[in-house]
Amino acid sequence: TVHVGIAHTRWATHGAPSDINCHPHRSGDQNEFVVVHNGIITNYKDIKQFLEAKGNKFESDTDTEVIAKLVKHIRSQNPKDSFRQLVEKTIAQLEGAFACVFKSTLFPGECVATRRGSPLLVGIKAESALESDHIPVQYSADEDPSHPRHGTDIDGSPAPRKKTSAMFRMDPDHTEEIRVSDEDSVEYFFASDASAIIEHTNRVIFLEDDDVAACKQGVLSIHRMVREGSAPDISREITTLKMEIQQIMKGNFSSFMQKEIFEQ
Question: Residue 172 has what pLDDT?
């Protein structure tokens, strides 16, 4: 049995605190895609204008809603793409800071999370011991892995972007994922801070900018597209937190206010 749930306890940074502006936000009446988001999308007005011209109706005053509607639009242009591929193409169009978790009725039992500029970690709680203390990163291939494709533009780009180049390749070994046996159970927790999940597990993976974590039928894998000038690690370490809850929440700061100031 697979269950996926997402929630966000903070109000939107755009629009008044209200039920209509709180998360998750959806792609439309059918809830094909829903997303929770921590951060600010700086080019959301351009994306919103593009999507409105395509006939999309917006329910909220938030920047987050454009993400849900954009991934639905990209799905209409790329109906054979996986959930993860759709998210990768969506974040290629976003500017600003974000940590997002996606769900979709089109991909039951799946969850995709990604970040850029805003923190995001994955907590892992498994009945059995994990076979490794790290998870290798997979690099997204575009059709033929032997022919890297440069650029991240997609059909119907909502707004002009700075020129970037991206190289896609697939690691030769396709086993870079966390998998448990059929009789074992596993839970994954996506959160912005360890204090949110420490009561459930002390084993976490800290995602890097532009990492895309995909969870499908209890299997977790981490992917990314190499951008110009980036030098990503080849794996993400599964860290065992040894700190007490109070230490994790406040760290070495004298107060939560001081922590908030230094984390901005």
Answer: 37
CB 182 within 8 A of CB 114: no
Tell me the per-residue pLDDT of 202-218, one tens digit each, with 9 for 90 and over. Answer: 999 999 999 999 999 88
Q: How far apart are CA 46 and CA 209, in angstroms?
A: 23
Per the DSSP assignment, residues forming a β-bridge with 122 are 190, 205
Asked if 84 and 101 touch (Cβ cutoff 8 Å), the reply is no
Distance separating alpha carbons of residues 25 and 169, to the nearest angstrom: 32
The whole-number pLDDT of residue 233 equals 55
Angle 197-199-200 (CA atoms, 0-180°, nearest 5)? 70
Say if residues 104 and 83 touch (Cβ distance below 8 Å): yes
**Stronger pLDDT, 120 or 218, i.e. the higher one:** 120
Has residue 71 got a pLDDT over 70?
A: yes
CA 179 to chain centroid, in Å, comes to 20
Phi, psi of 189 (to 5 degrees): -120, 120
Closest to 36 measured CA to CA, from 222, 200, 196: 196
**Would you mind telling me the total number of residues written for the chain in this entry?**
264
Strongest mean pLDDT among 110-114, 182-186, 246-250: 110-114
Residue appearing with tokens 């109706």: 57
Alpha-carbon span 238 to 134, nearest angstrom: 5
